[in-house]
Design brief:
By secondary structure, the chain is α+β, with helices and mostly antiparallel strands. It has one domain (4-136). Helices cover 48% and strands 15% of the residues. The chain contains five helices and four strands; from the N terminus they run ββαβααααβ. The chain has helices spanning 24-31, 56-67, 72-89, 93-102, 108-125, and strands at 4-9, 14-18, 48-51, 131-136. Helix 1 (24-31) packs across helix 3 (72-89), helix 2 packs antiparallel against helix 5 (108-125) and helix 3 (72-89) packs antiparallel against helix 4 (93-102). The chain is elongated and about 50 Å long.
């Protein structure tokens, strides 16, 4: 499971969502250094992260900014590192082959497309009183 993005009210009632069944947002979080971002650095692929109305404009700005930096080479490098670590740890050949097969995939455009849907959801939540954006990790 990836990182689903949910727009919800103060009672936790969902207003809308963008699901991440193909782990696009998870891949972005894991393969990108987010330390320079005020909001994005707190995204947790394994937990929940909430943003309130005062944080949402900054979040939106950062999502747009990180979108413009997405490249295939960053994902290829990520999978190459994962493969190297898996080999070093003595993981099963099937897992290593699966990681190796991902190194040649073009992932930038599918991740950008998914991020576009997230950006649209976050835009719609702007200035909506007592609502929040929740990133729901695995």
């Amino acid at each position: 499971m990836g990182i689903n993005v949910i727009w919800q009210d103060e009672n936790g009632v969902e207003k809308n969502r963008v699901n991440d069944p193909q782990n696009r947002l998870s891949l972005l979080v894991l393969a990108t250094s987010l330390d320079e971002f005020i909001c994005l650095r707190f995204l947790d692929p394994y937990g929940n992260t909430y943003f309130n109305q005062r944080q949402i404009p900054v979040l939106l700005f950062e999502l747009k900014g990180v979108r413009s930096t997405i490249t295939d080479s960053q994902f290829q490098s990520y999978y190459s590192d994962q493969t190297r670590q898996a080999k070093k740890a003595g993981w099963q050949d099937a897992v290593i082959k699966q990681l190796e097969s991902r190194q040649g995939l073009s992932m930038a455009q599918p991740v950008r497309d998914h991020l576009d849907a997230v950006i649209e959801l976050v835009k719609r939540s702007l200035d909506e009183v007592h609502t929040y954006i929740r990133f729901e990790g695995d």
